[in-house]
Amino acid sequence: MRLAVRVVTALALVHTAVGASLHAQEPPSVEDTQSVVRGCASRPDLVRWLGRNFAETPVARGLEANGNLLDLFSEVRGATWTVVLTTPTGFSCIVSEGRALELLRSRADEAQT
After folding, report:
1. Burial class (CB in 10 A: 0-12, 13-18, 19+), 81
2. Which of 6, 25, 47, 97 lies at a 20 to 30 A Cα distance from 32?
3. CA-based diameter of the chain, in Å?
């Protein structure tokens, strides 16, 4: 449980630092592949890029009060992970990344035990 609290706290701090600037930007065109290298792109482009380069897919998702979508992507064994924040306009940015993700049991799993 402590790990989950630390992850949520870290994500909140990252959101505060990055989130406001996202709303001022428009999604780059599909042809602008260099934008993904810099960490931001349209959501479909960024999702494809994470899949191609790191074999990561979404494993958790949450909707913020301001309408932003927060996604946690991970490689199937958790070797790598990426947190992506997407605005309602479809502009996405990588806000955090790392290695060795360990998924904790969900509340639904805990209720069944």
Report:
1. buried
2. 97
3. 49
